[in-house]
Amino acid sequence: MTSAIDVYGFGVVLLELFSGRTPADRDEAGDIHHITDLTVPLITRGDFEAALDPNMLKPKKIEMASIVDMACLAVECESITTKDRPLMSEVLSHLSGALARLSSNETNHVDEEEYADGR
């Protein structure tokens, strides 16, 4: 096992979280496909909503930027060549940044709502 394989595996987990699919999933015709075959093309085209888990609540605008970040990171982790995959430390940094942006946006959004309500 190498760290590049760990990054690839983590990318699969991110795709599972994002899409609600299992690593080997059936399409509408009943054929079995790997999660990367079903989700990566949608994400690469920028069709994030089509790739999202249909059972998820529709994300708020402030959440969508972090969701897009996660999806794009997952695609990077799934790069065919190991040299094109990020290091796990880069993955952690990327996820930490996305979480910080989401937390900051939620805090600002709540503050704006409280201010508008006169609290």
Please supply descriptive tags for the structure shown above.
119 residues; mainly alpha; 2 strands; 65% helix
List the helices and strands and how they pair.
Layout: H1 3-19, E1 24-26, E2 32-34, H2 35-44, H3 48-51, H4 61-77, H5 88-116
Antiparallel strand pairs: 1-2
Would you mind describing this structure in some detail?
With 119 residues, this protein is mainly alpha-helical. The chain has one domain: Transferase(Phosphotransferase), domain 1, CATH 1.10.510. It has helices spanning 3-19, 35-44, 48-51, 61-77, 88-116, and strands at 24-26, 32-34. It has a two-stranded antiparallel ribbon.
Shape: flat
Low-confidence stretches: 110-119
What composes the largest sheet? 2 strands, antiparallel
Considering DSSP H and I runs of 4 or more, what fraction of the residues is helical? Answer: 55-70%
What is the CATH first-level class name?
Mainly Alpha
- From the coordinates shown, what is the CATH architecture? Orthogonal Bundle
SSE class? mainly alpha
Cα-atom radius of gyration: 17 Å
Summarize the entry for a quick read.
This protein has 119 residues and is mainly alpha-helical. It has five helices and two strands.
